[in-house]
Amino acid sequence: MGNGVWTGRWFRTSLALLHPNGKHVSWSMVCGVMLFGLGLISLLTGHVASHLEWYSHRLHRRTLSTLDGGEDEPIDIWQSQYSKYYYGCEERGRHFGPAVRERKSNGYLLIATSGGLNQQRTGITDAVVVARILNATLVVPELDHHSFWKDDSDFANIFDVNWFITYLAKDVTIIKRVPDKIMRSMEKPPYTMRVPRKSEPEYYLDQVLPILLRRRVLQLTKFDYRLANNLDDELQKLRCRVNYHALRFTKPIRQLGQRVVMKMRKMASRYVAVHLRFEPDMLAFSGCYFGGGEKERHELGEIRKRWTTLPDLSPDGERKRGKCPLTPHEVGLMLRALGFANDTYLYVASGEIYGGDETMQPLKDLFPNIYTKEMLAEEELKPFLPFSSRLAAIDYIVCDESNVFVTNNNGNMAKILAGRRRYMGHKRTIRPNAKKLSALFTSRHEMVWDTFASKVKACQRGFMGEPDEMRPGRGEFHEYPSTCVCEKPFMDDLSQDGTRPKKVL
Hints:
Elements: H1 3-18, H2 27-50, H3 52-66, E1 86-88, E2 108-113, H4 117-134, E3 137-139, H5 155-158, H6 161-167, E4 174-175, H7 180-185, E5 191-193, H8 201-215, E6 217-223, H9 233-246, H10 251-267, E7 272-275, H11 280-286, H12 293-304, H13 315-320, H14 328-338, E8 346-349, H15 356-366, E9 370-371, H16 373-376, H17 388-401, E10 404-407, H18 412-423, E11 429-430, H19 434-442, H20 449-460, E12 485-487
Parallel strand pairs: 2-3, 2-6, 3-4, 5-6, 7-8, 7-10, 8-9, 10-11
Antiparallel strand pairs: 1-12
Keywords: Carbohydrate metabolism, Fucose metabolism, Glycosyltransferase, Membrane, Transferase, Transmembrane, Transmembrane helix
Transmembrane segments: 27-52
Family: Belongs to the glycosyltransferase GT106 family.
């Protein structure tokens, strides 16, 4: 039914309702009714127009998931057109009580983290949540000095410890060390225990809290992924406050990281950051084969002996399952097939590349403008060189600031940065669909480039960091922080003039 017909019927009906006996209607009343009607029509049509884009977005997403024809729509390789409909929402709820003060807490919780920088980051994040569950006072966590990376940096060497304590003051009481008088009053040294991985909050309340209450000071060791993935919404949002806000790098790290970012942006307005993760230890651990013959099999086999409990794996089987990282050449082929041009600037975040320049050359042939932190901050980087975690922090910053971030495995840095970029506005994050791409790379010489590129684009749908890839309960929370990413409501995201405001995160 057209608007004009509907309006006429509404007008006549309104008059009939006002004067059912057909008596004389005053002109002022007629004008009033007309003005009211026009205002109502304007409100309705304005509402529909202002939300046309919104409904189109939701219909488009539904169509893509149900119609085969949706797969032909081109992907914007630099940014998601739907990211503006989402925002980070980690705010504590009204019923989330204040932190328990130190003198009223159930005791002091010591945390010894494990692994490299980003693995320790997950441990620190979960340590705050566990302290909240136990109503404990958290002592600033200790970093791992004995792992493969052999970095003796302390928490305060990498993270702004005062900011960490202050930012979380409403959630958990955090101190730098156990008070001397408490330590002197203890009859025994602090009790040490290791909790099972992915432990539920109930485990901490049933098994850990009684020990904490009895001993007053308790240390949890090897603390990485020791808390369940799925928690209630308020604890998940606390995770986000810790990971995306409270864990701020020290000023020297932030300043150097930003200088590297500025050098990249001075050369190109936008750049792609690639985390190759093609180091010898990573390749050995994967159990995969990368075409290097007996020399490769021997070298990686020797490194693999470090882990006595690793099972024997079939390299071909692992590749078919999508468990092998792409080679630098394969990463380059994927990016070119997706549509990144030869003159795109790449920042490569990685340690020692297995095979060195010979392995990197095919990627450089595809993308000549390749840079690393070592190339962009040679002199300034020297004080950081003995400390692997501080070097990793520089890479973290430059990757986080990139227009596009490309992961090459499902390791800790890949997960942490993917989650952060989703939270910070769904910045484009590309994760290779290794399971499908492996077969495609094997047969790529049997097809023309356009066919190969088309198939790569089809493989990568659902692996480009789009908002609808993130569903509650999917994967690790650190990679898919669904509780902390909210969809804008119909009305609240409109300004007074009916337009969508710019998102501020």
